[in-house]
Amino acid sequence: MLPIRLQAYERLSMLLERISPNNLILRLNDSSYSAKEFQHVLTTSVREEYNHNLSQQIYVGDQVWQLTTQAVEDIIATVNQAADALHPEARSLDLAKKALEIQAQREISPIVQALVEIKREVRELF
């Protein structure tokens, strides 16, 4: 059972890293996108990453799963908030900048909080 649990923690760590705004934007940005198109690409990617890892919740503690879910919701909300703040003709780069700006204003990143909790739970296993 331990190897499966460790794999679940690894997969959730990877999910969190992949949806972090810096990584998400770098991986998916295409200058040909409008801000609205990029908003759709980003939110769809985050949801797909999350849905792909839904089964991991049975192997990790409730706190890790709750913080992971909150991080996913936060990233989607950040992207949507950034898109709402832009004019209709904005481009993907505008959305990227605004989303990163919003994320930088947070004292504590939900992604960092979830990763800290994952590490704490893994340390308890040993």
3D architecture notes:
By secondary structure, this protein is mainly α. The protein has one domain. The chain has helices at residues 2-19, 21-28, 35-52, 62-84, 92-104, 110-125. The model has no long low-confidence stretch (mean pLDDT 97).
Brief descriptors of the model:
126 residues; mainly alpha; 6 helices; elongated
Compact summary:
By secondary structure, this protein is mainly alpha-helical. Helices cover 76% and strands 0% of the residues.
DSSP helix count?
6
C-alpha-based Rg, rounded: 16 Å
Distance between the termini: 14 Å
Q: Summarize the main sheet.
A: none
List the helices and strands and how they pair.
Layout: H1 2-19, H2 21-28, H3 35-52, H4 62-84, H5 92-104, H6 110-125
